[in-house]
Structures are given as C-alpha cells and as structure tokens.
Specification:
6-stranded mixed sheet, 131 residues, 5 helices, Rossmann fold, alpha/beta
C-alpha cells in the first residue's frame, strides 16, 4: 500500500483499481489533513490492516481481487475491524446497488463520477465519529 502523507491527521484507506480515482481522492483527502493509504485492490488493503489501521476506508465496489461489497461484509463480521466506517464508491446508481451496500455494512455510498467535496465532507464526519 502506498502512503501519501501531508499532515498528522487520521489515516484514510482508499481502495480503487483506477489509478486516477485513487490519486484524485488521495489529493482531496490529504488537502484537508488526512494521511492517505492507497491500495489498488482489496488484497493490498487486507494485508496491511493489522499494522496500519485506518479511521475510514473508501472502497470501490468493482475490485480486481475481491468484490468490494464482499470485503465490506467480511470486515463488518470481524470484531477487529467492524467499527471502521466504510464508504462505498460505485458506478452503479440503482436503488438495489445502494441497498446492497448498506446491507453489507457501508456507512455511506457515492456514485461515480464522484462529487469529491461531498465525499471528503462525509469522510471527515466519519473520522470524527459524528456521522
């Protein structure tokens, strides 16, 4: 997992197989003081959770190693990680997709193309525990 550090703020993990999306989210989150960990796929995130626990995970649904919703469900079932808020990012805007994300345990759902400002605001709320 790549680290982008611009401040001493909370750590946010961004998992997306699209490099441009990862970088845009990293830049936006770092600009407001977060430390950002980038992962191109869920396996990279899972391999670092034990040593580098994020305050919030931003997770793309379509993932090369594991479906994002499957990972969300698995994290929410694990007592070690169930309290980490997960923000789902997806290209799907159908009600069924949104319901499935919240059923899997997501704290928020954003449709691509992203409103990065809204997403950053939500991540700030979740990191503070005020969402």
């Amino acid at each position: 997992m790549t680290t982008t550090t611009h401040s001493e703020g909370a750590t946010i993990a961004v998992v997306d197989d699209d490099r441009e999306v990862r970088q845009a989210l990293s830049d936006a989150l770092a600009a407001v003081g977060f430390q950002v960990r980038l992962a191109p796929h869920a396996l990279k995130l899972v391999s670092t959770l034990e040593v580098d626990r994020p305050a919030v995970i931003v997770l793309d649904v379509v993932n090369s190693w594991m479906d994002g919703l499957g990972l969300c469900r698995a994290l929410k079932r694990n007592p070690e990680y169930k309290d980490i808020p997960i923000v789902i990012v997806s290209g799907k805007s159908e009600v069924e997709s949104i319901r499935a994300a919240f059923s899997a345990g997501a704290a928020a759902y954003f449709v691509k193309p992203l409103d990065v400002g809204r997403l950053v605001d939500k991540v700030k709320q979740l990191a503070r525990g005020t969402a």
